[in-house]
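user: Please supply your own:

assistant:
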Amino acid sequence: MVTIRQCDYTPDIHAADVAAFGDSYALSCPDAIWWDARDGRRLAGFCGLEIERGERIGFLCRAWVSPKYRGRRVQARMIRARESAARKAGLVRMVTYTSHGNCQSANSLIRCGYRMYTPEWAWGLDYCNYWFKVL
């Protein structure tokens, strides 16, 4: 059974982050809140949330699920965990982006109630789709 919990950015999350994305996002967002998904001691996934308190917006940053655990709704559960924390923090909107072709993440966001939008300025990757949800 996979358990999701809020945590520090641990060395095993860092290793998975670098392996999956080629760099460490946490180094550029030291204030992010992190969660891990674990099957016992085995890391099944991780995700982060950045909070823009002035605008009361949460940014779903950096999410990864181990191939062994894909298709088991782990990512959807991590999205819900971050939304719960955002509501408790008084946030009213969530935003994120996915790279073109990342259908698995896009489908998880859609199942969780996110919709595509076009931001006033492109703040993500050059090749991405933007998503939002009102909490």
